Amino acid sequence: MHSVLFTGDNNITLLHSGAEFFPALIAAFDAARSEIYLETYIFAADETGTEVMAALKRAAARGVTVNVITDWLGTGHRQCMLLNQEFRQAHVNHRIFNAWFRRGFARLHRKICVVDREVAFLGGLNINYDMRCDFDHDVILPAPRWDFAVRIVGPLVAHIHLEVEMQWMLLGGLNLRYRWERFREKWLAVMKHHENPMVAALVVRDNLRNRHTIQKSYLKALGGARKCAFLVTPYFAPGRKLRRALAQAALRGVEVTLLLGVGQFRIQDAVAHSLYPKLLRSGVKVVEYRKTQLHGKVAVVDDDWATVGSSNWDGLSLLVNQEANVVIRDADFVQNLRRHIECGVADGVQIHLSDFANIPWYKRMWYGAAYLFYRSVLRIIAAGKYED
Prior knowledge:
Low-confidence stretches: none
Strand content: 15-25%
Helix content: 40-55%
Radius of gyration: 20 Å
């Protein structure tokens, strides 16, 4: 694994949910002059998907080279085929990640866009409408999906561009190991340490040389936490190392708050509930967000560390999927993101240890069985690399 290397002099804007993200993304498409790269897990056939598709077509009609990657599982086989046909007619280049699981169980869970090598977008938002449930588009949410992305201008864009360009080339059939080494050498050659604002770094998770980069970034931040840590994820099922880091931070007096999504998958909720008691006994504050679908994968630690990206706190994101986060060391950005998280916490429901004192025995058994089943499946999917 490479160390996380930071670059300065960036301008990074936090974008809250689709209401802020999609207008900025489409504006960048409409201003594009030469090149667009877009990676997404879901590219839905809904209101937002139609608007983004139209903007990509407009760019291609102007002569902009447009390259789009969609994940086969996340977008769905039928939708991928329809996109492929429509993109081809509009002279938009389209590639599908891991169709029929030919590359194992890995998913392209990253949400990245780079325009003209000048502006980049990265975060948790798929190309889908904020008011539709992302696993059942016929279900209308009670409020817009709660999620985040960032818009980036500055030296960090070059590093993100190399990452998406490499992904595009690899899906084109070029030698994986050779191209990986060449791009990594080029990437490290241009990476510099900076002390000027805004300092940020790209951290990715893949199945080659960055298997644990995102997890280790979280572990380092929690290990150095002094005052507070707010961590947000829709799916909470981390391994023992991350659970221990949360508990140890809380035990040494750090105010640790978990804001978690619930209500999407019964077994996922049960796995999370099996982990609550030990964390609560350590002093970790657990809050469930039930207002609408929580999809954000963000965190802030103290006053100078934040991350926004695609990686959940579960085994798939941490051990199997291809993911991308940005780590940002900037007090103003951290303060802004923390305000949003604190609003989410205020809208959530805090879980107390007493809530588990009198739950029926069959619920306890269900939580434990769900965790054992989850752990067994992860060990199979991760080819034995899952460590609890």
